[in-house]
Amino acid sequence: QVQLVESGGGLVQPGGSLRLSCAASGNIFSIKTMGWYRQAPGKQRELVAAINSGGSTNYVDSVKGRFTMSRDNAKNTVYLQMNSLKPEDTAVYYCNADLTTVVSPILHATNNYWGQGTQVTVSS
Length: 124
Description:
This protein is mainly β. The chain is built from no helices and eleven strands. It has strands at about 5, 10, 20-25, 30-40, 45-50, 55-60, 65-70, 75-80, 90-105, 105-115, 120. The strands form two sheets. Strands 2, 4, 5, 6, 9, 10 and 11 form a seven-stranded mixed beta sheet that branches. Strands 1-3-8-7 form a four-stranded antiparallel beta sheet, with no helix packed on it.
């Protein structure tokens, strides 16, 4: 059973910072790509940042220069450092991962997984 557990959300004033964490656990063989998505009320979920197994990152234009995504492969954990936060960054942030699990000694399975989400509110 794979779990993605996010933490680090909260209430912050405009211009402030938060760091989100997402830890993957379970019978994990390898993790290919992990991403952070967000969904604001009344809006579609959007990809904010992604990082591949080699550490290369991509960001949506609206967060470039303000957000930094990183990963600790030894801990199966990714982070999203969010600086210069704006009210429009307010959303539920979700962790997502493409990972391979060990089903049996001779069988692996690759699937996509989501975390439960963590609320980020930017308001004065």
